[in-house]
Amino acid sequence: MNDEERIIRYLDNDLSEVERSKFESDLNTDLNLKKLFDEFLKLNNLLIESKKVENSESGYFINIVPRFREGKIKAVRYFSLPKLGFALTIIFVLVLSYILVNTELIFNGRNQITISEISDELADSDIDGILRYIDEENEGFNYDQLPVDYLENDLAELINQIPKTEFNLLADAASNDISSEFSAEEADKIYEELINKNFRNEVKL
Amino acid sequence: MTSLKSDSELINDFLNGDEKAFNMLALRYQEKIYWHARRMTGNHMDADEIVQQVLLVIYNKVKSFNFQSSLYTWIFKITSTRSLNFIKSKKIKSFISFEEAGDIINTSDNDIIAGIDSKDKIQKVLSLLQNIPPRQRQVFVLRNFDEMSYEEISKITGKSIGALKSSYFHAFNKLKELMKNYE
User: Fold this and answer.
1) How far apart are the C-alpha atoms of B149 and A23, rounded to whole Å?
2) Who contacts A172 (Cβ-Cβ below 8 Å, separation ≥6)?
3) Per-residue pLDDT tens for A90-137?
4) Residue of B nearest to A82 (CA)
5) Which of residues 27-46 of B touch A (CB under 8 A)?
């Protein structure tokens, strides 16, 4: 324990009886310790003196409780403001985050719809576009070999059974409107789904 | 007018609807609350605001007081915490408004200290206290001025007794050095 610590603990009444006796004995013999102790004692005396003047003015204390009674409602409002401010800040951050996330999605040109959703949602189509597409992608199929009445009646009827949304996709694919939206692999997958759904079992070469 | 009833009796009376019982409690502790806040913040206006805040907290929360510690310790925990939070928020406000936060010793006519000599002694001590870190100041004020045991201070601050003694040592040492510069 260094001298400062001994002095502070002595003034704080935190030394044991033995330590206290030793310290007081050292004070009488050690001039450096005595000098340092006097510095601390000066501060300690000032602290003690300042405590004595605590109750200089009683008028203020008499009015504390009446002022509290008058201001109770006003004080509750002051307590609420920081909490309200905190809550509003959290809400603002959440709203801002939501806007930023959705803004990114809006300006992102990438089509977020899945392939199966695309294949399920096609509108009315251009029959020629569909047939051209089928002709180009399905080497085994040549609609010129089909009987005319099949083309005019059976195939037409078959095409009419296809959901409207599917035709649009095929037409767009044929005209390359959406080909840039999908990779070649994705386009093939869409095509296969459409063909397997409606054509393969019906068209016989 | 002081009440002869114990703290627990006054609390029970207040919880049963006797508002005067709360007034008695407030009168019993208001000076200690004030002087603790005054030593922590360094000025009368801030200490006065803390007193009102502490009384409001006691008024609203005393129903949840379970007597696991003494009421005195509980009140001081509220007062000490409020004082620290007040100091922190004032520092942030002064930073945002670019005001000088250093000179916070208020020597306005609202001060309650009468007599030039008394005022001088208290202002000197307050000025010294403002130059040590708030948490060291808290421990020093609770120990030296509020005369609490380290066990009680540990309940208030949540710190170990060893850490508190270390804080007290550093605070006292620093105050001694600061006093040399003050003269």
Assistant:
1) 22
2) A178, A179
3) 888 888 888 887 765 554 544 444 545 544 554 445 445 555 555 554
4) B89
5) 27, 30-31, 34-35
